[in-house]
C-alpha cells in the first residue's frame, strides 16, 4: 500500500429532515448565500421551500442561480461568479444533483480568480481559495457532495473537462435519502450505473490494494442490491439511503488512498458527453462492457475473474469463462434498469466524429489500468455503435 494522508473534512448530515441544520450551518460560514439549482425539480418536490425556510429563520440573505444544466455549462458558472461578486456572497449552497454541486464548486473558486473559470480546466492549481460550499444532494450518482472534483462543459467547443482541486470539496453535505424519492427511473438507473462505475474504476487498478478493493466490492454489492429496488420502488427508504451513502463513499478519495487509481471509462465517456450531451451514467453503462471485452487478455483475466466471483457470485472455476460471465452479469444488471445498450439509443446516429472524440479522451488516460490509444478508443466506440444494430 502506498503512503497517503487521509483528509476528508466534509461534515455530513445524513438522514431524514437533516435540512433542519441548514440554518445553523449557513450562519457558521456566511451572511449572504447563493443558492445554485437546476431546472426546477427542487421547487416541485418542496426541497427549495424547506431550504429557504431554514435560511429565513437564521436570517441569511439568499440569492438564486437557477437553471443549471445537466452537464453544467461554463456560461452558467460565469453567471454565478458575477452574482457572488455583485452581492458579496460568502457561501454557495448547491441543491440538486452532481451538476449543481459541480457548478457551485467552480463558482466558489472563480470568485477569487481574476481570469476566466475555464482556465481551471487546464490548470486546477490556479484555484488558491474558495468560498465554502454546502451541498444538498438530491440524486445519488456522482458523489460530488464529498469530493474535490467538478466537471464542466463548453458546448461551443465540444469540450467537457474535469477539474480536481481539494479546495473545492464541500465543507458541509446534507444527505436526506427522502430527497431522492422523486428522481425518475431513468436518472435512478443512470445514478446507479455511475456509482458502480466509480467503484469499478478504483477496483481495476494495477495496485495490490487488498483492503480498498474489498471495500469496493462491498459497495458494488450494495449498488447491485439496492439499485433495482430503488428503480422499482422509488420511495423505498432503505434502498435510497444505501445508494446515497454508497455513492458518497465511492468517490470521496477513501478508496483511492494507498491505491494508484487512474480512471478509464470516465475519460472515454466525458468526451462523448461533450459532443452529444448524453446522460453521464447511461454513457458509462453503454461503454463499460465494451471496454472490458476490449482489454480482456491474459494479464487482465484474473482481475475480471475475481470481479465476477466476488461481486457477482459467479462460481465458474475457469478464469476466462468466469471473466466473461462477470461481464454478462453486469449487462444483466443494466438491463434490469432498462439502460440502453447502444450509442444509437441515446441519439448518436453517426460514427463520423469518433476519431476526434477519441483524440480528446487520450490526454486523460495516462497510467490507467490498461493503456489505450486513440485507435483503441475508436474501436470501443464502434463496438457500442454496432452492437444491437
Ligand atoms: O435540474 P433539475 O430540475 O433539478 O433536474 C435534475 C436533472 O434534470 C434531475 N434531478 C435531480 N434530483 C432530482 C431530480 N429530479 C427529480 N427529483 C430529484 N430529487 O436529474 C437530472 C440530472 O441531474 P444531474 O445533476 O445532471 O445528474 P448527476 O447527479 O448525474 O450529475 C451529472 C454531472 O456530474 C458529472 C457528470 O459528468 C455530469 O456532468 N460528474 C461529476 C463528478 C464529480 N463531481 O465528482 C464525477 C462523475 O463521474 C461525473 O463526471
Ligand atoms: Zn461518474
From TrEMBL:
Keywords: Oxidoreductase
PROSITE patterns xrefs: ADH_IRON_2
Pfam family, one: ADH_Fe_C
Annotated transmembrane regions: none
Domain Fe-containing alcohol dehydrogenase-like C-terminal: 188-383
Keyword Oxidoreductase: yes
Gene Ontology MF term list: alcohol dehydrogenase (NADP+) activity; butanol dehydrogenase (NAD+) activity; metal ion binding; methylglyoxal reductase (NADPH) (acetol producing) activity
GO cellular component term, pick one: cytosol
Lineage of the organism: Bacteria, Bacillati, Bacillota, Erysipelotrichia, Erysipelotrichales
Species this protein is from: Faecalicoccus pleomorphus
Top-level division of the source organism's lineage: Bacteria
Domain Alcohol dehydrogenase iron-type/glycerol dehydrogenase GldA: 9-177
Protein name: Iron-containing alcohol dehydrogenase
Amino acid at each position: 500500500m502506498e503512503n497517503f494522508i487521509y483528509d476528508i473534512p466534509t461534515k455530513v448530515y445524513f438522514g431524514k429532515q437533516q435540512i433542519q441544520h441548514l440554518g445553523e450551518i449557513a450562519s457558521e460560514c456566511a451572511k449572504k448565500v447563493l443558492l445554485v439549482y437546476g431546472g426546477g425539480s427542487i421547487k416541485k418536490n418542496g426541497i427549495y421551500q424547506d431550504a429557504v425556510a431554514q435560511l429565513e429563520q437564521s436570517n441569511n440573505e439568499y440569492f438564486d442561480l437557477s437553471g443549471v444544466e445537466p452537464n453544467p455549462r461554463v456560461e452558467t458558472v460565469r453567471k454565478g461568479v458575477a452574482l457572488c461578486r455583485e452581492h458579496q456572497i460568502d457561501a454557495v449552497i448547491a441543491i440538486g444533483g452532481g451538476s449543481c454541486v459541480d457548478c457551485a464548486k467552480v463558482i466558489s473558486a472563480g470568485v477569487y480568480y481574476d481570469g476566466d473559470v475555464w482556465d481551471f480546466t487546464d490548470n486546477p492549481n490556479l484555484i488558491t481559495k474558495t468560498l465554502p460550499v454546502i451541498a444538498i444532494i438530491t440524486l445519488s450518482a456522482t458523489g460530488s457532495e464529498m469530493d474535490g472534483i467538478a466537471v464542466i462543459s463548453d458546448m461551443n467547443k465540444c469540450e467537457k473537462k474535469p477539474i480536481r482541486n481539494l479546495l473545492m470539496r464541500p465543507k458541509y453535505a446534507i444527505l436526506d435519502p427522502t430527497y431522492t424519492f422523486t428522481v425518475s427511473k431513468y436518472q435512478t438507473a443512470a445514478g446507479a450505473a455511475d456509482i458502480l462505475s466509480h467503484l469499478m474504476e478504483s477496483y481495476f487498478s494495477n495496485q495490490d490494494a487488498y483492503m480498498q478493493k474489498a471495500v469496493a466490492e462491498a459497495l458494488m454489492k450494495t449498488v447491485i442490491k439496492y439499485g433495482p429496488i430503488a428503480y422499482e420502488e422509488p420511495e423505498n427508504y432503505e434502498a435510497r439511503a444505501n445508494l446515497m451513502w454508497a455513492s458518497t463513499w465511492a468517490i470521496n478519495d477513501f478508496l483511492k488512498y494507498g491505491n494508484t487509481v487512474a480512471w478509464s471509462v470516465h475519460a472515454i465517456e466525458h468526451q462523448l458527453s461533450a459532443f452529444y450531451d448524453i446522460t453521464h451514467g447511461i454513457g458509462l453503462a453503454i461503454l463499460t462492457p465494451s471496454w472490458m471485452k476490449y482489454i480482456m487478455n491474459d494479464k487482465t483475466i484474473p482481475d475480471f475473474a475475481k470481479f465476477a466471483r466476488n461481486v457477482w457470485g459467479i462460481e465458474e472455476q475457469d478464469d476466462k469463462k468466469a471473466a466473461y460471465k462477470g461481464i454478462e452479469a453486469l449487462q444483466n444488471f443494466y438491463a434490469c434498469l432498462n439502460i440502453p445498450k447502444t450509442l444509437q439509443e441515446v441519439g448518436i446516429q453517426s460514427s463520423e466524429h469518433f476519431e476526434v472524440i477519441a483524440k480528446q479522451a487520450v490526454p486523460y488516460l495516462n497510467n490507467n489500468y490498461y493503456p489505450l490509444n486513440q485507435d483503441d478508443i475508436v474501436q470501443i466506440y464502434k463496438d457500442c455503435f454496432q452492437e444491437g444494430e
